[in-house]
Design brief:
Layout lengths: L1 H16 L4 H7 L9 H12 L2 H33 L4 E2 L2 E2 L9 H9 L5 H4 L1
Antiparallel strand pairs: 1-2
Amino acid sequence: MAKSLELYKRFIDDLVETRECVLARRFREKMMMPPNTEELKAQNDLIANLNDDDRMWISRLLQSARDGGIHDTLRYLNEEIVFNDMKISVGGVELPVEPFGMTLYQDWVGRTEGDYDWSDED
């Protein structure tokens, strides 16, 4: 169980590490892209013409949309695991199901918000 639990923690933490929405960062930091397409030119024009507060709000909305997608995917996976006997394995080692009494998405949210310290669970 120890190896599978470590793999579970890594699975959640890897998702936390890949959480950042690149488009949200572009808006937040006013990063322009080489306008080699009409879409990028339109995005650059939008970014350039927004004030700092509006760029921050759009950045938050974009990040929220990405977070929602990750959350919903984990919710779906958790339901498949619990109700349809789906398994997730890494290198042939099956990940435990709700090892901390929380769903995949609850563990992800806890780690994302910094409320959840794995060392407290050992």
